[in-house]
Sequence to fold (154 residues):
Amino acid sequence: YERKKINELHDGDGSAEIVGTVVQVFDPRFFNVCPECSKKVTEAMGSFSCNTHGNVKPVLSYVMNVVIDDGSGNIRSVLWKNQTAHLLEKNEEQMLIYKNNIAAFEEVKTDLLGEQLKLLGQVKKNDLFSRLEFNVQIVSRAKPEEELARLEKV
Fold:
């Protein structure tokens, strides 16, 4: 992964690393996916169907978006189920609480604001909103000692 400033990101950057501050947190969105391929399923008359695997018993998945700012710019960052669970240190049962009571997520949002994160992933253009978004593959809290050591090398 190549460390970049947000204002240096381009559509298609496949292995970028950014470090920045969480300036906005959006409520997670919950949806059903196929247990085989993890693609979104459609519901009709109480049954769920996957385009590839036909009728399936779906599993719950979710996505959360945060806006990260590094001083050079900001970018909406998409954290899928595993990255969200890792960042929030929550298991699926704990996340289900937020599905049924989104107001309970307000405290989590407040706690995340101002956190320094290191994100590794890829940049894609969201054509609907005509903006770049960061699709997160690995998320961790930034470690000040690592960032200081990095700056001292420069």
